[in-house]
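dumping this here so i dont lose it again. seq + smiles for 2-acetamido-2-deoxy-beta-D-glucopyranose
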Amino acid sequence: MSAKSRGTAAESTPRSGMSRSLSFFLYLCCFFAGMFFTNRMWTMPSLDGIERNLDAKFKHETVVSEDHDSYPKKAVVRTDDGLEETSELTNVIEPLDQTILDLERKLAAARAQQEATSTGSPLSGSSKIVRSTSKHKYFMVVGINTSFRSRKRRDSIRATWMPEGETRKKLEKEKGIVLRFVIGHSASPGGILDKAIEAEDMMHGDFLRLEHVEGYHELSGKTKTYFATAVSLWDAEFYVKVDDDIHVNLATLGMILSSHRRKSRVYIGCMKSGPVLAQKGVRYHEPEYWKFGAVGNRYFRHATGQLYAISKDLATYISVNQNLLHKYANEDVSLGSWFIGLDVEHVHDRRFCCGTPPDCEYRAQAGSTCAASFDWRCSGICNSSFRIMEVHERCKEGEDALWSSSF
Ligand SMILES: *[C@@H]1O[C@H](CO)[C@@H](O)[C@H](O)[C@H]1NC(C)=O
Ligand SMILES: *[C@@H]1O[C@H](CO)[C@@H](O)[C@H](O)[C@H]1NC(C)=O
């Protein structure tokens, strides 16, 4: 608060910042009301001066407001006409500006707090809140998990279910659907593998690079980093993970998700519960099998890893707690374990795990278009970079389904 404003404040009894700001506001109202009733508004010669002063003040304001803490305490903007009214107004407006800044800060903090309590996210004042930088709201972020070896798979997806270039941008802007191939870095940063991805990204612009070393802590580490990064970049209702050898129908996926948008914590996928494998050396071996009870038990239900979706609250939860969340041997089991103790609605939807043709084709003919198709025996479409074309031809949703949909 400036030295001048302290003079004004001294006339009133010391109160909280809130009520002081109120009284400044009332002061200003009275000031204008007084001018109105004394009919000075129309005759006052200095109105131009005031306006100029205000203009200068606000221009000044936009420059300094980027850093509130360095708000110059002594800065007084003057026009050189030296009119009484203008300096009087400056006296009122200056503390008022500061008060507005304070109020804005308080409001932002209160909003964050309220958001956290109403959604039940464990965000305390001290924890680092990952916030999206843009105010734009998205419907869903679809991260396609890919690897350095998968160029052919990416191209086959670009040639089938994923819109490219301007169409993809339009989808993002008009439908709020963000599509990205998700990949980290190689163990030797800036190496030939990273260069190849950079070149591919220059051409297509459809990558999300993670602070993650590919092949290291591969499984659940990448999942955590993906959700944390996606939540910080896009404020979306749903976050989806899909592998790069899956066929997806985006409008169908969007329709399914939009039917669950009223629920705040929802985990949607094809829910399964495979056996916990205790023997060493077998595929999907679980070193911590003893945690799951007697040998021969099954896991709790969890979404199969090929394609699943979680609501914003759950993605935020992962982002905030990523250092605490345990990684089991399998990525999909890990994700399920993070949610099994929370108030989460598990949604099982068969359309998230259709087979390749003829399965998805029959289903579509029966009126139930699939969101995702793959072969269970390959945990993706077998030989997908070749076969995804055929799957697309036979199981794709209507051409205009995506653009005519309203999410
Ligand atoms: C990503 O895909 C690779 C194979 O392309 C797979 O080995 C890995 O487990 C997947 N990661 C996640 C987090 O799904
Ligand atoms: C994949 O499919 C193509 C075309 O059908 C075939 O030429 C190729 O040998 C197949 N690759 C594998 C590994 O099965």
